[in-house]
User: Which sequence fits this backbone?
């Protein structure tokens, strides 16, 4: 049977047409290598325009590289990163941040809806740490979160203040940054450097692109020799224009927010469909493009038999359903119709 991966993740979707066209346009003739080309310059300028500031931009292949390398850029081996227990950096990067930093540790905090709280960060910082322990040096939050929720600008600003007051660097994992901007309808700068964020992993693969994430340093004093770190890690593409041209297609005419809004709207529609059933329970507020939902195990088995592939991520019955730029109303209706029939199987 053909499995249906429509809701399994947002990276099961293809490439947005705007990025595909830009890729084709970049595939004409010769260009300088290793990021010395026009496309790389344009993509970097697009990112500076989006953030309305003169930030330092690096393009790498994966989100794990973006997080690990940027955190390694702000932490040394004797340092520690404060983050949520469920954060991708703590759970799904195979120790990448520790590896690339030469040993930086993590202080994981719990927090409802995938968010860490300023008060909890302050409590951790007040513990009497002598030289037997790694020193807190950075805070990392995920926006939108691993739970599909979105930090408000005020919440980010409050964490940014704790970071500044305590001499910590502030990192944001923006694997789904666009979905958060679309959800809050704010200017990207309000959610980042104006709120105290020093460095952002700006994701675009899950949103729209074939491959590639950007690392954006708002505090340029932190990125002095960062190009060397990227090269050492094998993250400087020799044909960099093909990593960067899709970014131009994505950002130049606002396609990124159009597609992010669409994915978010699809998630809201899917959630509304799921809520019709007495036996389903939404496990987290639906604020971006993710829906966390629980229904009985037998119904999951029946959905699988109908071809639906998705991940159970919370306990035995909590599924994560992701919407993307390519999700349609028909996909959602089909899923809901199959669910309705699965309940009576
Ligand atoms: C997917 C994801 C990443 C990046 O993952 P890669 O597979 O390395 O590209 C980072 N953070 C979060 C929250 C993610 O969901």
Assistant:
């Amino acid at each position: 049977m053909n499995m249906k991966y429509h809701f399994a993740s947002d990276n099961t979707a293809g490439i947005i047409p705007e990025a595909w066209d830009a890729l084709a346009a970049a595939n004409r003739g010769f260009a300088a290598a290793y990021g010395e080309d026009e496309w790389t310059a344009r993509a970097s300028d697009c990112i500076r325009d989006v953030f309305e500031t003169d930030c330092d931009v690096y393009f790498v292949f994966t989100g794990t590289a973006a997080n690990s390398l940027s955190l390694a850029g702000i932490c040394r081996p004797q340092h520690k990163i404060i983050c949520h227990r469920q954060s991708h950096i703590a759970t799904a990067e195979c120790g990448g941040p520790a590896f690339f930093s030469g040993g930086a540790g993590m202080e994981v905090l719990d927090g409802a809806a995938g968010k860490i709280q300023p008060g909890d960060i302050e409590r951790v910082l007040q513990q009497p740490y002598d030289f037997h322990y790694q020193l807190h040096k950075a805070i990392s939050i995920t926006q939108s979160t691993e739970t599909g929720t979105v930090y408000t600008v005020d919440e980010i600003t409050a964490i940014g203040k704790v970071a500044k007051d305590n001499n910590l660097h502030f990192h944001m994992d923006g694997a789904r940054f666009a979905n958060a901007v679309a959800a809050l309808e704010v200017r990207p700068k309000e959610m980042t450097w104006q709120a105290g964020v020093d460095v952002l992993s700006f994701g675009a693969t899950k949103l729209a692109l074939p491959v590639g994430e950007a690392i954006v340093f708002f505090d340029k004093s932190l990125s002095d020799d960062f190009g060397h770190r990227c090269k050492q890690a094998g993250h400087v593409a020799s044909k960099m224009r093909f990593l960067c041209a899709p970014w131009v297609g994505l950002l130049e005419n606002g396609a990124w927010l159009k597609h992010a809004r669409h994915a978010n709207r699809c998630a809201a529609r899917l959630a509304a469909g799921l809520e019709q059933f007495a036996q389903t329970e939404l496990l987290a507020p639906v604020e971006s493009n993710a829906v966390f939902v629980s229904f009985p195990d037998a119904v999951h088995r029946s959905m699988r038999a109908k071809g639906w592939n998705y991940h159970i991520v919370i306990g035995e019955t909590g599924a994560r359903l992701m919407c993307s730029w390519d999700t349609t109303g028909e996909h959602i209706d089909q899923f809901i119709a199959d669910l309705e029939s699965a309940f009576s199987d």
In short: The chain is about 40% helix and 15% strand. The longest helix spans residues 255-275.
